[in-house]
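Comment thread on ticket #2218

A.B. wrote:
> Attaching the input chain for the structure job we discussed in standup.
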Amino acid sequence: MSFRDFKDKEDFKNFFLGLLQTEKTDKKHLSLLLNLYIRYNHNLMERSNGKNFQSNFFTKRYSQLIKSWFNAKNHFCKKGKEFLRNLQKKNINFLLKFELPENLQNIDWLFAEGNLNILFNRENLFIGMIGTRSPKGDYKRIIHTVIAAFKRQNPVIVSGLARGIDSAAHKTAIDLKIPTISVLGYGILHKYSTSNEYQFLRKNIPESGGLIISAYRPSELPRRKNFLERNELIVQLSNFIIPVQGTVPSGTFSTIVRAINKNKPVICIKNNWVNEICEYVHQSNYSKFFVFHAEKFNEKTVNELLLYLRSKELKPDTKIHTDSVRNSIKLF
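C.D. wrote:
> Ran it. Output below, let me know if you need it in another format.
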């Protein structure tokens, strides 16, 4: 039995999805299986008989585990195919690593409900809007101002479907007829909340041309580590990260740290509250950190910002003096 026995990639997807539904299958084992399939395809099991291959990639015990899965191939393929059919009735797609856009190919799989095309449109500008679950002040107006300013740039608003800033960002995008992507920290079939706000967004995001995605098993429960991984996915998807409100430390702050590590621009909208995260990033002298007054953030500001970033083509080690930034795009 080997990968050669799979007719095509769809056949392997059904097999993999069948395994994914089996609670006893470890996520690390599934990840290794997928990566071996991508790398070695039908040569895997022939190579796995060699001692060097086993020592380099997996133990003899894991080699036997793979073979046991292959021996039950028909069972897993049938199980996966039936489950995929049920998912598709709910407009949910299942994608493996080799089917994802380049910036997401470190993810093993993704479940996606809604308009899948927005993930693959390179003309889209993905804007991550994140923040506290307990916002203060006129945050809804600020979110509306920011999203509206990007409207001519093919924006897609990316957030996490939590209450507070996330929900306001998704709702504003729907109101402005702008697509939005919700990144879940749990399975796509898990009923996370019974609140009216959550139920409205869960229904209307895909129906309005947006997308809901999850990198977890379909019914997986929310866990703390999942939300941290979810934040990583938001950063990967986004061209910009905007922390509307947040404290240090917090989940929002951890997302900004991830954005800085990936050299993503961070935009702070200055208003009448103290945004601890923006204060922290400002003190760090991060070269892709920009601050704008809320009242002056408009379409012209966005055009100037995008023009500035495209012309400079900043590198991770590039340092910008505050004065030069201020003169270039009228910051602060």
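A.B. wrote:
> Thanks. Noting for the ticket: Residues 35 and 52 are 18 Å apart (CA to CA).
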